[in-house]
Structure formats: C-alpha cells, structure tokens
Amino acid sequence: MGSPSVFSRAAAWGAACFLLLTGAAHAEEVKVMISGGMAAAYRELTPEFEQKTGHHIETAWGPSMGTTHDAIPIRLERGEKADVLIMVGSALGELVRQGRVVADSRVDLVRSPIGMVVKAGVPKPDISTVEALTRTLLAAKSVVYSDSASGVYVGGELFKRLGIAEQMQGKSRMIPAEPVAAVVARGEAELGFQQISELLPIAGADFVAPLPEEVQKITIFSAGIVNGSQNPAGAKALIDFLASAAAAPALKKSGLEPIHK
C-alpha cells in the first residue's frame, strides 16, 4: 500500500514542476517604452494584462520626440532595449521609416485632444470659442505647453492661426520632460496646454476645457513592436489588449477616444 502513495506523491510533484516550468516559459517580460499621453489608462490597465497573461511589464517613460535624455528616440539611439513602443503616431511612423519598428505591427490606439489647465482654485477663464481663447491668451501673463506633439502645435501653429504669435513670444515657453500641469500647479505659469489625458491626473491644477473645435489638434497615439524584440508574442498580446473593447472604459475615463478597428 506504501508504494502507490510514494508514486502518487512523485507524480503530483512532477506535475507541479511541469506547471511551474511551463508557466515560467510563458510568463515572459515585456519591455515597454511609452510617452505620457496614455499614462493614466496604461497604469490602470497593465495590472489586468499581467494577471490575465502572466507576462511581466517593465516600463520606461519618456517623450515621443525631442532631445531630452528620456525621449524615446534618444533611448533607442543609445541602445536601450524594448519590445513595445506606445507614443505619438507621427513619431512612431518616423521610427518605422528608420527600420526601428516593424511596419505591419503598428496599431493606432486612441485620439487625444488638447486642453488647458489653471492652478487649482483660481477662476477658470473662458476658452469656449476661438475669440474667447484669443482674449484669454492675450490677457495671461505666462503660458506653458509640452515638448511633444501638443506643444509643437500650440507654440508653432496655434498662436499663428490666432494672429497673436508676436504677442505670445515673450510670455510663453515649452516645458521639457515634465507634465505641464505640474508647472501650473506650482504657480510657475498661469495657463498650461497639453493633451487632456496628461493634464487630468495632476493634482493642484484644474482642467478648464478642450481647445475650441475650430482650432483643436487631435493627436493619435499608436503602438508598435520594436525590430529585434526579445518577446514579439508578448508585445503583440499587449498591443491587442490595449486596442480591445475591454480597455476602452479606462481609456475614455482618462480623456482619450479609443480607435475601434
């Protein structure tokens, strides 16, 4: 009677070892580089992805463009490894052209509008129309905007479209590698412009409104698999999850508009 018990225990141990080993084989690390536009939703969704798939996510944060130390293109240039990039679609497209991202792996995930914040507790100015926005900008003592796609538009195009580029030169500036709302929350600027999804999570700043539709600039955030990825299957699984209907509520809550295929 003792032998069957020994054999049963041995079989159970063998089965347990097999499950551990096969689980480890599938529970691979997925290295992600991501810009701030999807940060709030990403932080909410990745634990669910890890729980469902067994994959472990390792995240590096940085702007989609620019020359700061943490900017995603700069990280790649100095040899940092990644499986997935999640960033402004136009910047991802440039990396596809450079051969750094697998071309047919690109998935457009969300549309992201630009909005404005003021320091918490101060009166919210009117930017509901193009005329009201122009008046508010001219009356402001200081204006800041991001060093990514939204800021390139605000500083390089919006002021010109409003006919106030010259008036804004001395009182507006780009903020590198920091959430614009954090600068406004500290009282270092009166008005701040960035993607709404990057403004909402910052304490100490109050969201005012999106830019008027006539001068709004929608940024597409996209994901792609890095050429030479050590875990392309895990990378694809993450992209598919972020593009799925299951991820949509978290994306919408953070101020983003999911793109449904």
UniProtKB/TrEMBL annotation:
Q: Name one GO molecular function term.
A: molybdate ion binding
Superkingdom as given in the UniProt entry = Bacteria
Q: Which UniProt keywords apply?
A: Signal
| Gene Ontology biological process terms, A to Z | molybdate ion transport
Keyword Signal assigned to the entry: answer is: yes
Q: Where is the signal peptide?
A: 1-27
InterPro entries, per the entry: ModA/WtpA
> What is the protein's name according to its record?
ABC transporter substrate-binding protein
Species this chain originates from: Telmatospirillum siberiense
